[in-house]
Amino acid sequence: MNAPLMPARKPRIATAVLGGCFGCHMSLCDLDERLLQLVEWVDIDRSPLTDIKRCGPCDIGLIEGAVCNDENVHVLREFREQCTVLVAVGACAIHGGLPAQRNHLPVAHCLRQVYRTDSGAIQVPDDPELPLLLDRVVPVGDVVRIDHFLPGCPPSADAIWRFLTDMLAGRTPRLGHALLRFD
After folding, report:
1. Which residues 6+ apart lie within 8 Å of 96 measured at CB?
2. Antiparallel, parallel or unpaired: β 83-89 and 67-69
3. Are 51 and 111 in contact (CB under 8 A)?
4. Residue-wise pLDDT tens digits, 53-72
5. How far apart are the C-alpha atoms of 28 and 15, rounded to whole Å?
6. Which residues contact 9 (CB under 8 A, 6 or more apart)?
7. pTM score, two decimals?
8. DSSP code of 79?
9. DSSP secondary-structure letter at 32?
10. Which domains are present in the chain?
11. In whole angstroms, what is the distance from residue 110 CA to residue 105 CA?
């Protein structure tokens, strides 16, 4: 693809991950050599690709994963404040995905199952560094306003590329059926 029409200033893109498998970011990495093209067109702010931990003001934010705990809520709200446009990426961000499978069980039951020792005792960690689980896993749109949705589990690198290049060119992103994937 040719370079999109670029403004005087490079747009800033940031990414963040909540509760999920990191598959959407793996698809972003699967852009391969197209990542080099992308960084010619944009500046990348907070992202596991840059290891920048806090997001500054950015034009496009890509959020992956479901909202599972109080830290996810905090990160998501802070990220939303910094992003002009926020894109929910993948099934977990859009619908809750696999993390939401625990919603049919009480949190206490999940904790008892996970932290049962070989002797049958239950030792749930009680450390202020551990985020508190929410009663229910929710999609990001239940917590903040989302501007666009990029479906898939995970979306393919081609879908991410098409979505980003459409946005950078000032077009409404349109993904055809062939670009949608739910593995």
Report:
1. 66, 103, 137, 138, 139
2. unpaired
3. no
4. 777 899 999 999 999 999 99
5. 10
6. none
7. 0.90
8. H
9. T
10. 12-100+134-170 (3.40.50.700)
11. 7
E-assigned strand segments in 67-118: 67-69, 83-89
Question: What's the chain's Rg over C-alpha atoms?
Answer: 18
pLDDT digits (tens, 9 = 90+) for 99-157: 999 999 999 998 988 898 888 888 888 898 999 999 999 999 999 999 999 999 999 99
Tokens for 83, please give them.
């992003």
| Residue matched to tokens 């034009």 | 59
Give the Å distances, CA to CA, from 127 to 47, 88, 104, 130: 27, 31, 26, 6
- C-beta atoms surrounding 148 within 10 Å: 16
What is the DSSP secondary-structure string of 42-55? -EE-SBTTTTB-S-
